[in-house]
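Q: I'm building a small set of examples for a reading group on sequence design. Run inverse folding on the following structure and report the sequence directly after it, with nothing in between.
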């Protein structure tokens, strides 16, 4: 399917980063953070009440993610993008992950549906800053003008960025192959993506060691770890060749 596909959409979730040992939101709430309630750390109300604690928490997670490395699953997805691009075929990666590992692995066509730990946004102007030095000197961090920065992630009760949803919808409407990888397929709107792709006539594939609510609706449900099976799929589709991490020979 991948060898013949012309317009590929990949949706990823926390499972793709599991093999890089990225703690999930809940797993990260350990040690120092174990006594906190998710509502107080990941909502606009929690931030308004205690911006210092909330930004410390996101800075802690940002640094954890910087310590992690992309795994063979991430690298295989980066190779899929390179191979399709070199054949003038379309590829887009829609991710629910905020860890930035897809970009670090070499994917360029990435839509971060839930934002990124590497993006911080001015609470007054909306201006976004990426890849700021870590850790911050003060909490909450501030711009040079002294205005407060908030994490550029989507909190509970917030809308996904409209342009991300629009791009996802356009690509899903025209794709001919859709992968859902490492996602429990329970959180909307991403949970509905495989049905949208199927309605557009695409073949649909799920990669997950466990069954999910989407398993019964896809053409192929591959019960395996992403880091184990994605390199095999890529090799079958495109041959052994370019296994080099992060952007090939550049
Ligand atoms: P979940 O934690 O809900 O699901 C992770 C999925 O990955 C599960 O179905 C696992 O079976 C699967 N999995 C585990 N290890 C894997 C591996 N090595 N290879 C492939 N799959 C593996 O994470 P998401 O689906 O990403 O939202 O959750 C979506 C959103 O729900 C998150 O982004 C977060 C959460 O609430 C927000 O923070 C807004």
């Amino acid at each position: 399917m991948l060898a013949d596909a012309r317009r590929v959409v990949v949706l990823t979730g926390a499972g793709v980063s599991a093999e890089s040992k990225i703690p999930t939101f809940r797993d990260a709430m350990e040690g120092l953070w174990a006594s906190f309630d998710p509502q107080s750390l990941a909502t606009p109300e929690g931030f308004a009440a205690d911006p210092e604690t909330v930004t410390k928490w996101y800075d802690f997670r940002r640094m954890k993610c910087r310590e992690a490395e992309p795994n063979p699953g991430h690298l295989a997805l980066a190779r899929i993008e390179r191979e399709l691009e070199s054949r003038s075929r379309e590829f887009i990666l829609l991710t629910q992950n905020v860890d930035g590992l897809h970009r670090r692995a070499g994917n360029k066509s990435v839509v971060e549906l839930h934002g990124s730990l590497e993006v911080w946004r001015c609470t007054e102007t909306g201006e976004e800053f990426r890849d700021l030095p870590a850790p911050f000197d003060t909490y909450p961090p501030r711009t040079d003008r002294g205005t407060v920065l908030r994490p550029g992630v989507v909190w509970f009760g917030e809308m996904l960025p409209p342009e991300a949803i629009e791009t996802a919808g356009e690509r899903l409407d025209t794709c001919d192959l859709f992968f859902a990888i490492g996602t429990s397929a329970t959180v909307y709107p991403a949970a509905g993506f495989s049905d949208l792709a199927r309605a557009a006539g695409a073949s649909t594939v799920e990669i997950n060691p466990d069954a999910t609510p989407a398993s019964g609706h896809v053409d192929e449900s591959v019960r395996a770890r992403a880091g184990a099976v994605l390199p095999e799929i890529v090799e079958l589709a495109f041959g052994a060749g370019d296994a080099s991490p992060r952007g090939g020979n550049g």
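Residues 51-67 form the longest helix (17 residues).
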